[in-house]
């Protein structure tokens, strides 16, 4: 496994506007971030476009290789398939490789 960088989440979980509706409806219950992300707080603020939409509770954190992502995880993340999830992550992180560490935040 290759951890490109290590960082902490902080008190705000920032999301793209395109994912906000799925998160608020409960369809998207996971977010995947590149690198090893330390999560010091169990409750954080959900932020999108410099606006806070509420508090969310982080129930688990898992570290995987990008190549270890699964169909079940993709559905939990609000995607129809693993291919769709991989395409979305690749568009956000264009140079991501199969051995890169990702942080799965629930």
Description:
This protein has 106 residues and is of the alpha/beta class. The protein has helices spanning 17-25, 71-76, 82-92; strands spanning 6-8, 12-14, 31-34, 36-38, 43-48, 51-57, 61-65, 101-105. A hairpin with a 2-residue loop joins strand 5 and strand 6 (51-57). The longest helix has 11 residues, at 82-92. It starts with 5 loop residues before the first strand and ends with a strand.
Beta-strand share of residues: 25-35%
Per DSSP E runs of 2 or more residues, the count of β-strands stands at: 8
Head-to-tail CA distance between termini: 21 Å
Q: What is the average per-residue confidence, as pLDDT, rounded to a whole number?
A: 94
Helix content: 10-25%
Fold topology:
Blueprint: E1 6-8, E2 12-14, H1 17-25, E3 31-34, E4 36-38, E5 43-48, E6 51-57, E7 61-65, H2 71-76, H3 82-92, E8 101-105
Parallel strand pairs: 1-4, 2-5
Antiparallel strand pairs: 3-8, 5-6, 7-8
List keywords for this structure.
single chain; 106 residues; alpha/beta; three-stranded antiparallel sheet; 3 helices; 8 strands; 25% helix; globular
Question: What's this entry about, in short?
Answer:
The protein has 106 residues and is of the alpha/beta class. It has 3 helices and 8 strands.
């Amino acid at each position: 496994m290759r951890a490109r960088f290590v960082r902490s989440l902080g008190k705000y979980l920032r999301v793209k506007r395109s994912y906000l509706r799925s998160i608020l409806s409960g369809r998207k219950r996971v977010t995947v971030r590149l690198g090893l992300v330390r999560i010091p707080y169990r409750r954080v603020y959900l932020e999108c476009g410099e606006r806070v939409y509420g508090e969310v509770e982080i129930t688990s954190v898992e570290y995987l290789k990008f190549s270890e992502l699964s169909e079940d995880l993709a559905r939990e993340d609000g995607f129809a398939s693993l291919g769709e999830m991989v395409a979305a992550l690749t568009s956000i992180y264009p140079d991501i490789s199969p051995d890169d560490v990702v942080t799965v935040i629930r």
